[in-house]
Amino acid sequence: MSLVAVTRGTVRRPFDPGPIRDRARRLGARSAVTEAGRHGGRRRDPRLVLAAGLTVWLASASFATSILTAPPASVVRWAGNAIERCTFDGRTFPPRDGACLLPVDLLATGTLTAERVRAGVTETLAIEVGAYPYPVQRLTIDDPRRTNPNAEDLARIERESARIAELWTLDGAAHGQLPLSPPLEALPPGGRFGAKRIINGNPSSPHSGLDYAANQGTPVLAAGDGAVRLAEEHFFAGNSVFLDHGDGLVTMYFHLHEIFVEPGEKVTRGAVIGTVGSTGRSTGPHLHFGARWRGARIDPALLLGPVERYPNLE
Question: Which of 56, 92, 249, 257 has its CA 20 to 30 A from that of 292?
Answer without folding.
Answer: 257
